[in-house]
Amino acid sequence: MVRKPCCDKVGLKRGPWTIDEDQKLLNFILNNGIHCWRLVPKLAGLMRCGKSCRLRWTNYLRPDLKRGALSEVEEDQIIELHSRLGNRWSKIASYFPGRTDNEIKNHWNTRIKKRLKLLGIDPLTHKPIETAAAKCEEKKKENMNLVQEYCFHLMMDERQWERMDLEEMKVINGNYNTPFSIGDQFYVEGSTFSW
User: Fold this and answer.
1) Domain HTH myb-type, which positions (predicted)?
2) Count of domains forming the chain
3) Which among 65, 81, 105, 126 could bridge 89 via Cys, Cβ 3.0 to 4.6 Å?
């Protein structure tokens, strides 16, 4: 089943709204109210589609809209609501009388998201961002712990020390340049040092 298009697009104006068009739409709605958005453009004398008129009214012309930048308190409230509601912009906008869902969404995407990233917070999860360097350090620690644990088990049997060579230790160590020691020898890939 195909939905009927909102209008016949032939002959309709597209692009930015003019002051004259805004005035026609505003006067029509204030004098007649809104009954059906599909009929509004024709009755108001506009060469726009009903959807365009609805969005223009909802996001720009409504008399109860707040103008101007969002305050820091409003931004903090948006962050808090986003952490609970996600990208449900209409639901978030319901907490801000006079602000539209579109305005809040645009402010989130252009300002708040960037601010959170600069603070080291993931805008989707609202948790600290784990850097690549931190992940690498964690992996090195895990590998070092495995090597130390393996060496400890080897020390239990003195004869095993004699059978183990450096190549086996490289395999255990995952070929990272992490130092390890056997007896009084200290190894870093490609080098051997004595204590």
Assistant:
1) 9-61, 62-116
2) 3
3) 105
